[in-house]
Amino acid sequence: MTKEELMRKAIELSKENIENGGGPFGAVIATKEGEIVATGVNRVTSSCDPTAHAEVSAIRAAAAKLGTFNLSGYEIYTSCEPCPMCLGAIYWARLDKMYYGNNKTDAKDIGFDDSFIYDELELKPENRKLPSEILLHNEALTAFKAWAAKEDKIEY
Ligand SMILES: [Zn+2]
User: Fold this and answer.
1) pTM for this structure?
2) pLDDT tens track for 91-134
3) Within a 13 Å sphere around the CA of 153, how many CA atoms are in the beta-carbon half?
4) Contact 82, 99 (CB under 8 A)
5) How many angstroms does the Cα of residue 150 sit away from the middle of ligand 1?
6) Which one of the listed residues 55, 81, 120, 151 is annotated catalytic?
7) 133 catalytic per annotation
8) Which residues belong to any copy of the CMP/dCMP-type deaminase domain (predicted)?
9) What domains sit in the chain, N to C, each tagged with a CATH number?
10) Pairing assessment for the beta strands 74-80 and 97-102 based on DSSP bridges
11) CA of 115 to the centre of ligand 1 (A)
12) Per-10-residue mean pLDDT for the chain, 156 residues long?
């Protein structure tokens, strides 16, 4: 499939998902040659899962299908510019390229505003809306020391 056909598929999924009770978001993960590996739609309300955005759903499906946590060599087509969580997931999945249809402003215009998270990321933790504090730092570090010392770990 061409890039346009793959994006059209993501858009089609985003439209179908409205009829299925989900948000208007769809994503496709494909090889560079244009073969679809997996798709995802937004299932936040239907799955009672606040992390079930289209991109995360597609990444989970692709990784499970391919049996790897590393999706380098693959590309993602998403019907909308990703939120910070999904953008992070796309980086963690090591996808090679992202294509998006709608942008953040389009999403904001219909009530899906994630700009506050992007704004929060610019602030120091103590200035964010989410109260946070360091607790039991030394005890938590014992897990990191155990990881650092482990010789047969799978690096990722
Ligand atoms: Zn997202």
Assistant:
1) 0.93
2) 999 999 999 999 999 999 999 988 889 899 999 988 999 999 89
3) 10
4) no
5) 34
6) 55
7) no
8) 1-115
9) 3-149 (3.40.140.10)
10) parallel
11) 12
12) 98 96 96 98 94 98 98 98 97 98 94 90 92 94 96 89
